[in-house]
Write a structure and sequence with these properties.
Helix content is 37%, strand content 18%. It has 206 residues and is of the alpha+beta class. An eight-stranded mixed sheet has the order 1-8-7-4-5-6-2-3. The N and C termini lie close together (12 Å).
Length: 206
């Protein structure tokens, strides 16, 4: 696959976006230095790695940004193309970058007949209610599904997708892509550009 050769690529627009986000996080960090130190470090550009992984989607019910109950297995059914990531709304480092990248990725594949259903799951359900997620989505102009739920159910989802690192301050950049009918997910770890995500998507969905 061509995407396996791109592990070291980082675009100039991503670097500029990262610089702005890191500057914002430093300005907002007064009194929170120790709590945010690890997470802020994750905002620096890192090599992207990709792999193919199979997951058994757990049978949980989450809530979307409108407060509607969502059967996760049904939403992520194998017959549907999916782009999935994990964010939380009070994050000031990698999550704004990931959300902006997802937005640009969605635009890049808008005319693709195999374009994915996009989903973001909050890793901070104790704070990120449906209303909070709705406001977050509106702030970015993000017109895709944002999910929250009970702490137990969200933790179960994070563990299944190997997205749990002990707490939200250890959150890392992860995007999961799966074309329609595929059994395996393409796991993209590290901050990447929307252009590269779109290229990976074309590779795996064609």
């Amino acid at each position: 696959m061509r995407y396996l050769a791109r592990a070291q690529r980082t675009s100039r627009d991503l670097i500029a976006c990262l610089a702005l986000c890191v500057a914002a996080s430093v300005a907002a960090a007064d009194g929170m230095e120790d709590h945010a130190a690890h997470h802020a470090m994750m905002a620096h550009p890192t090599p992207t790695s990709t792999s193919r992984v199979s997951y058994d989607v757990p049978a949980v019910s989450l809530r979307d940004e409108t407060g509607e109950e969502v059967d996760l297995r049904q939403l992520l059914a194998e017959g549907r193309p999916i782009a999935l990531n994990f964010i939380f709304t009070t994050c000031t480092t990698i999550c704004p970058v990931m959300t902006a990248t997802m937005l640009q990725f969605g635009r890049a594949v808008a005319d693709d007949p195999h374009r994915p259903v996009m989903v973001s799951i909050s890793i901070d359900p104790s704070y990120d209610s449906s209303d909070v997620l709705k406001a977050y989505a509106a702030r970015y102009g993000a017109e895709w599904t944002f999910l929250t739920g009970s702490s137990a159910d969200v933790l179960r989802v994070l563990r299944v997708f190997d997205a749990y690192r002990g707490s939200k301050v250890n959150h890392f950049a992860l995007t999961l892509l799966r074309p329609s009918g595929a059994h395996e997910w393409t796991r993209v770890e590290g901050l990447t550009s929307a252009k590269e995500l779109a290229s990976i998507w074309q590779d795996i969905s064609s």
